[in-house]
Amino acid sequence: MSKKVTLVGAGLVGSLLSIYLAKRGYNVNVFERRPDMRKTKGYAGKSINLALSDRGLRGLEGVGIADEIRKIAIPMYGRFLHYQDGTTGYQPYGKEGQAINSVSRAGINMMLMDLAETLPNVKFNFEERCTGVDSVKGVSSFVNESTQAQTTINSDLIFGSDGAFSAARLSAMLGHDRFEYNQFYIEAGYKELVIPAGPNGEFLIEKNALHIWPRKSFMMIALPNIDGTFTCTLFMPFTGENSFEKLKTREEVKEFFDRVFPDAVPLMPTLLDDFMTNPTASLVTVKCFPWTFDDKLALIGDAAHAIVPFYGQGMNCGFEDCVVLNELIDKHKENWPAILNEYQILRKPDGDAVADLAIGNFTEMRDKTADPKFHLQKKIEAWFSEKHPDKWVPQYSMVTYRPDIRYSYALKRGKEQDEIMQKVMAAVPGIEEKWDTPEVEKLILQHL
Ligand SMILES: Cc1cc2nc3c(=O)[nH]c(=O)nc-3n(C[C@H](O)[C@H](O)[C@H](O)COP(=O)(O)OP(=O)(O)OC[C@H]3O[C@@H](n4cnc5c(N)ncnc54)[C@H](O)[C@@H]3O)c2cc1C
Description:
CATH class of the largest domain: Alpha Beta
Bound molecules: flavin-adenine dinucleotide
CATH architecture of the largest domain: 3-Layer(bba) Sandwich
Number of domains: 3
Mean pLDDT: 96
Number of strands: 19
Low-confidence stretches: none
Distance between the termini: 50 Å
CATH superfamily of the largest domain: FAD/NAD(P)-binding domain
Strand order of the largest sheet: 6-5-14-15-16-13-17
CATH topology of the largest domain: FAD/NAD(P)-binding domain
Largest sheet: 7 strands, mixed
Strand content: 15-25%
Structural class: alpha/beta
Shape: globular
Radius of gyration: 23 Å
C-alpha cells in the first residue's frame, strides 16, 4: 500500500519505526529537529550509552539489525557494587549467560538511520522542527532551524516519535477534549561524568558489569563503552543535604567525591572539569491517553510514555511499541483505524506499568542494593526459580529477558512475589544459614 507516512523525530524509536513501515511499502518522510548526527560531532542529549535488553533486541531483530548492534554492545552480566567503606559486591542479573548490553546511543541511532536510508522509500529531513499537527486533516507543520522556512506536509498517517517533550503530543492535547495528561519530575537529577580508559586502552574496572555506588538518597552508576571508557552518571536530588545545590565550587565537589566515592576518584582525573562543565538534567515521567487521534496520528516511544531510566527500559519499551504495531498491521491487514485502536488499548497499560517499575527501581538501585537482606532475597528467588521455572520468574528477569511477558503482568506478579518473599523471610529464623533448604522451598510453595 503506498500510503504517505510522516514521522516526527528521528531518535531511536522514530528511526526504527521508519524501517518497519518502509519495509511494508509505505512512503516514509522523517522530520528531525536536530542536524544529522552522522555529520555533526557532539553530545546528542540524554545519556551517552544505554542498556539494551531482550525487548529492544526483538525490535531490532524484526528489521534484521540485531547482530550488527550486538557487535557494538558490551554485555553486562550483573551489578558490581562499590560500597562506601571500600568493599565491593556482585549481584548477577539473571541466570548464567543472561546479560543486558551497554550500547552507544548515537551508535545505535546512526546505524538505524543508515539502514533506513538504504530503503528507497525513506527520506530523512534534518533541522526541521515540528510546530504543530492537525490530526483531522493529516497535516503537520515544520520550521527549518537554519533558514526559518516553513513547510506543511499532508499525509495519511503521522507518528509522533518526538520524545518526552513531544510537539505532536502537545498539538493533540490542545486540539482534543478529555486528553489525560500526567507529568511529574522525581526529586533527583543527573550528571554524566567519565572514567577514561587505561594507558593501553584497557578497562580500569570490571568491563562486563553495570557498576553502582549505592548511597541511599543518591548513587553513581557506570556503564562500559567499547573504547575502554566508562560513562558514569551521578543521580542525586537537586536540593537537600546531599544534593546538586550543595556542589557549586570545585572544592565542594572534591570534598564530596573524596568522602562518598573514594574508590572512584583516582579513576576520574577529569572529574572536576567534567562536573563543572557537564549539564545537570532532570528526569520526567509522562503518562497520557489517548495515544491515537482521528485515525491519523499516533504517539510512540517517549512521546507516549516517558519514564525514568532506572530499569533501563525506555528505549526497549519504545522498540517494543514498534514490534506490537508491526504485529497489529499483520493482524488487521492494514486497516489503520483498527490497528491504532488496538495499539493504544494494548500498550497503554504496559506503558504505565514500565513507568512504575522504573520509579521503583530507583529505590532498589540507590538504597536496597546496599542491604544484605535484599541480596539474600534475590539469591533465594534465583534459586527457587531455577528449581521451579514454571512457578516463579524474578521480576527483573520478566522485565529484562522475557519479551513474551507484558510489563503490566511483570509489575503485578512482581508485587505478589515480593509479598511472598517478605512473609517467608520473616517466618524462618536464621534464614541466612538455610536459605536453600527444603523448609524454605516448602514455605514458598505453600504461598503460591
Ligand atoms: C539518563 C538516561 C538514561 C537512559 N538509559 C536508558 C537505558 O539504559 N535503556 C533504555 O532502554 N532507555 C534508557 N533511557 C531512555 C531512552 O533514552 C528513551 O526512552 C529513548 O531515547 C526514547 O526514544 P524516542 O525516539 O522515543 O525519543 P528520543 O530519543 O528523545 O528522540 C526524539 C527525537 O525527536 C526529536 N524531536 C523532539 N522534538 C521535535 C520536534 N518538535 N520536531 C522534530 N523533531 C523533534 C529529538 O531531537 C529526538 O531526536 C535513558 C534515558 C535517560 C534520560
